[in-house]
């Protein structure tokens, strides 16, 4: 490695060796930074000299022998042929000129027999008397066969200025400078490796051969590995002063120049600049900081912990005194674990915002944790804990929820200061913990303290979007300024209008009810909630606040659905994940998911989850990943939903003890249950859930998943209990929307299996009478269940309608379920051909969804390889399908779903004869015999079908 990029220097040394052999002595000073290969270069010169039959005398100066008189001369004598050089003089005579002359004369006599090469390394550590002998030799060997090669660090000066000056005065003096390896040299050295890898290694090592060799041996730069020791070796060879300076640079972590380093170490600024330049020339520093983080870790790791904290503390004081930015000072306070300065708390608070703006949530959380340790009163401590919860939610939802346990305990014990009630309610609402948020707002109302505005810049709603919801009926009023929840909603105008317009109030415990504790048992309070579309505010909620916590988890009424979905999409176009924006973004996604449909919400969920992942915001990734899983499940993509839910759960550091993650786990359980993977679903349900889940909106998703699992495993009463608990809570919170969670049809499914057919009919009728019944998925599922309560002929009619609705909804799994039921009833009514068509279509849908159990129900024993359609050429069939007109596609698609010609005619407002003509042309174009061979994956866009 040493010979790379050294051709010119070695050529010069070859010339010097040749000159010495010819009686033309030279004095060569080899300079370079620490680790740049001076010792290896001297070794190469010595080997070349030996090849020329020269006598090589070698010595090395060391810090430990620096005060030993004639120590280096003794090394030279010891390396010479026995008896050729005199032993060093006694200490009393060592400084005499006669002793120096005797040494020089002996070297000259030795050179008469062969050229002599004297190589001395680390000249700056050579003792004073040895330097005098070398200087005398240099003066007297101008016409002899002697080559004197000295090596010294470029930044380590010799204590004797006369020695350095005298060397320069010699006419045969030559200086050789060994620079660090450039990119081309490293690339040559690493020939065969990836170019990017060579560039990385050059950048990490700075071209220092010693560091580069260590990196090649220690690619992971493990603590205590070769790279660590190489860094420490470089510092050791530079001396104690440089080591102290390196520690200061490591503590400042690239945030201090020579002036700050000088003040921190109480040294001259020129000395600090010279020391930093030496470390830079050695490839250790890049500007004011270490080039490689492992180098900084090596320096700090070998400091005494107490000394390290003391240096951090002094650095904080010095940096603050010099007016350094808050993040720089805060980093030093963190290293020192010190908040004793009167300005420390203010610096930590100011640094939090900057760290978050830079995407460093971990540092921001660390500042808040340190501030919490230093808080002297309960009020400040509560505010810090609440702020810490909001910051931690970016990466760890479980930790974020845990941080609110202290303020909640203080709230229930009457110790929480009134000015912390509003921020606590806001944080709980953002986490979906409705009962506890209402508890805080109740106490805030009783205290008489204004809620206070939301922090500037922590939330943005659709009020800032051109048009916003100003064109939506009832959407003109602003959120009251004293509302502590202001800024959390993506629909502030709509949420405020619901309260101000006096929409029907719910009965029961309402906002004054305490949070349900102790698992997921029945919620407290009455279930007699009456509301138009389930959008009323729970009774008892203080009118002084514009938004009830549950409203931030709701969606607009059906009459506003189209406008709200459009505005949600407009809002999503102009926003990205950031602190204070996650809750509005998630609400806008929910609105788009439930009112605009899963297909419309899917790309937004994928984009926001990906953006959060790129930023390392694993908590936000879980939020949007959970919505992505729900959107895929709404499309019937069971495998995709399971994958998205698993990715969301795996993204965060710990799964246990989080209400958010429990809700996402519920989506995973629903996907597993629909796929028939009941053991996997049971394993997920077997994980512990937090006690707070009972009072959270995420608990609704978990209860539904648990109920559907119980339904699939024949525990019908347990399933019914979970579904009814959902209804109670949704009514109590004013969230009773079948589009969001159709608990009535879930409960009807359990009741039918229990034989309670009249009760099941009541629940289904109730769902069909609500405005949300216009939603095709809500209506389709209700019609499918209602068909089970009817005679075969009426059942067939209801199932046909359900197929149409579910096809429009885009939920392929629910459509497959309905087609299986339709196939069964068609077989019962004596239409086996149509039954086979419906079952074939159901089988293909179930296979695409990943529902193997449903595949077996549709076509028992059927496999994809046995299907004639699967054996045909799909490429040729796609080309033939492309030849169909849109009218022919619509007719063929309805035929695939099992409709008769008359039913197709009624749906498309054409005659039966026209239907027959269309089908005849379809059969001819596709080269098939009839309906049974129609491609089951034939589709037209939902908006083209009426």
From TrEMBL:
Q: Which residues form a coiled coil?
A: none
Which PANTHER family would you find in this protein's record? TESTICULAR SOLUBLE ADENYLYL CYCLASE, TRANSCRIPTIONAL ACTIVATOR DOMAIN
- Residue stretches making up the HTH luxR-type domain: 898-925
Instruction: Please give the Pfam families that the UniProt record associates with this protein.
Output: AAA_16, GerE
UniProt-annotated stretches for the region Disordered: 449-469, 498-518
Q: Which GO terms describe its biological process?
A: regulation of DNA-templated transcription
Keyword ATP-binding, does the record have it? Answer: yes
Gene3D superfamilies (UniProt xref) = Tetratricopeptide repeat domain (1.25.40.10), Winged helix-like DNA-binding domain superfamily/Winged helix DNA-binding domain (1.10.10.10)
Which residue windows does the record flag with biased composition (Gly residues)?
Answer: 505-518
Cellular component terms (Gene Ontology): cytoplasm
Task: Drop me one GO molecular function for this one.
Answer: DNA binding
Q: Which residues cross the membrane?
A: none
In Swiss-Prot or TrEMBL terms, this protein is called: HTH luxR-type domain-containing protein
Keywords from the named record: ATP-binding, Nucleotide-binding
């Amino acid at each position: 490695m040493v010979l790379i990029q050294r051709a010119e220097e070695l050529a010069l040394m070859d010339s010097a060796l040749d000159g010495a052999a010819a009686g033309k002595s030279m004095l060569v000073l080899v300079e370079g930074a620490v680790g740049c290969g001076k010792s290896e270069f001297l070794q190469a010169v010595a080997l070349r000299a030996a090849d020329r039959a020269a006598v090589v005398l070698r010595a090395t100066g060391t810090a430990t022998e620096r005060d030993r008189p004639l120590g280096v001369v003794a090394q030279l004598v010891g390396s010479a042929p026995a008896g050729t050089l005199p032993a060093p003089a006694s200490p009393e005579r060592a400084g005499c000129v006669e002793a120096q002359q005797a040494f020089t004369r002996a070297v000259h006599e030795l050179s008469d027999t062969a050229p002599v090469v004297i190589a001395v390394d680390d000249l700056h550590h050579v003792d004073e008397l040895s330097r005098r002998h070398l200087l005398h030799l240099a003066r007297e060997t101008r016409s002899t066969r002697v080559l004197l090669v000295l090596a010294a660090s470029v930044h380590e000066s010799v204590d004797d200025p006369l020695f350095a000056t005298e060397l320069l005065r010699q006419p045969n003096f030559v200086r050789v400078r060994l620079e660090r390896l450039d990119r081309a040299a490293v690339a040559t050295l690493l020939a065969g490796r990836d170019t990017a890898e060579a560039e990385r290694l050059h950048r990490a090592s700075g071209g220092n051969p010693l560091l580069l060799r260590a990196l090649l041996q220690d690619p992971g730069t493990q603590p205590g590995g070769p790279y660590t020791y190489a860094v420490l070796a470089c510092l050791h060879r530079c001396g104690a002063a440089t080591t102290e300076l390196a520690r200061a640079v490591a503590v400042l972590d690239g945030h201090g120049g020579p002036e700050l380093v000088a003040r921190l170490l109480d040294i001259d600024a020129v000395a600090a600049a010279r020391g930093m330049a030496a470390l830079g020339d050695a490839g250790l520093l890049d500007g004011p900081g270490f080039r490689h983080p492992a180098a900084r870790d090596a320096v700090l790791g070998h400091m005494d912990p107490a000394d390290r904290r003391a240096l951090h503390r002094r650095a904080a004081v010095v940096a603050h005194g010099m007016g350094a930015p808050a993040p720089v000072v805060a980093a030093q306070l963190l290293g020192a674990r010190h908040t004793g300065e009167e300005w420390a708390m203010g610096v930590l608070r100011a640094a939090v915002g900057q760290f978050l703006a830079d995407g460093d949530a971990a540092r921001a959380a660390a500042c808040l944790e340190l501030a919490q340790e230093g808080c002297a009163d309960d009020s400040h401590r509560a505010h810090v804990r609440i702020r810490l919860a909001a910051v931690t939610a970016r990466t760890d939802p479980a930790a974020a929820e845990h941080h609110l346990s202290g303020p909640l305990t203080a709230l229930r014990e009457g110790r929480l200061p009134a000015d912390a009630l509003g921020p606590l309610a806001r944080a709980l609402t953002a986490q979906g913990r409705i009962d506890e948020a209402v508890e805080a707002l109740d106490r805030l109302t009783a205290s008489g303290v204004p809620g206070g505005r939301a922090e500037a810049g922590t939330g943005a709603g659709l009020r800032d979007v051109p048009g916003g919801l100003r064109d939506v009926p009832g959407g003109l009023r602003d959120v009251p300024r004293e509302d502590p929840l202001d800024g959390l909603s993506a629909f502030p105008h709509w949420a405020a209008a619901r309260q101000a317009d006096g929409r029907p109030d719910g009965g029961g415990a309402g906002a004054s009810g305490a949070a349900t504790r102790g698992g997921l048992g029945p919620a407290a309070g009455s279930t007699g909630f009456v509301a138009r579309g389930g959008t009323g505010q729970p009774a008892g909620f203080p009118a002084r606040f514009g938004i009830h916590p549950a409203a931030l988890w709701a969606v607009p009424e059906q009459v506003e659905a189209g406008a709200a979905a459009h505005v949600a999409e407009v809002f999503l176009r102009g926003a990205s994940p950031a602190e204070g924006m996650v809750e509005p973004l998630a609400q806008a996604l929910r609105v788009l998911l439930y009112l605009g449909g899963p297909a419309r919400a899917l790309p937004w969920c994928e984009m926001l989850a990906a953006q959060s992942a790129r930023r390392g915001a694993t908590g936000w990734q879980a939020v949007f990943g959970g919505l992505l899983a729900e959107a895929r499940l709404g499309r019937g993509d069971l495998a995709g939903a399971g994958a998205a839910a698993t990715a969301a759960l795996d993204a965060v550091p710990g799964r246990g003890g989080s209400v958010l993650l429990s809700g996402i786990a519920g989506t995973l359980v629903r996907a597993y249950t629909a796929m028939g993977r009941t053991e996997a679903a049971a394993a997920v349900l077997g994980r512990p859930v937090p006690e707070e889940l009972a009072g959270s909106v995420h608990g609704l998703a978990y209860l539904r998943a648990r109920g559907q699992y119980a339904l699939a495993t024949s525990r019908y009463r347990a399933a019914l209990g979970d579904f009814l608990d959902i209804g109670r809570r949704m009514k109590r919170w004013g969230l009773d929307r079948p589009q969001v969670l159709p608990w009535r049809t879930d409960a009807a499914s359990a009741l039918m299996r229990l034989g309670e057919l009249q009760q099941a009919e009541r629940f289904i009728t109730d769902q069909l009478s609500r405005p949300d019944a216009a939603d095709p998925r809500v209506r389709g599922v209700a019609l499918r269940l209602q068909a089970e309560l009817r005679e075969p002929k009426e059942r067939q009619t209801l199932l046909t309608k359900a197929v149409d609705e579910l096809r429009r909804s885009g939920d392929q799994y629910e459509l497959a379920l309905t087609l299986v039921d339709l196939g069964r009833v068609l077989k019962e009514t004596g239409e086996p051909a149509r039954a086979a068509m419906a079952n074939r279509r159901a089988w293909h849908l179930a296979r695409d969804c990943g529902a193997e159990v449903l595949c077996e129900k549709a076509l028992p024993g059927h496999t994809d390889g046995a299907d004639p359609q699967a054996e045909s050429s799909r490429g040729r069939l796609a080309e033939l399908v492309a030849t169909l007109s849109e009218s022919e596609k619509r007719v063929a698609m309805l035929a695939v779903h099992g409709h008769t010609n008359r039913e197709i005619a009624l749906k498309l407002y054409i005659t039966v004869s026209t239907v027959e003509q269309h089908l005849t042309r379809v059969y001819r174009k596709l080269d098939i015999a009839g309906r049974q061979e129609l491609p089951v994956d034939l589709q037209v866009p939902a908006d083209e079908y009426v």
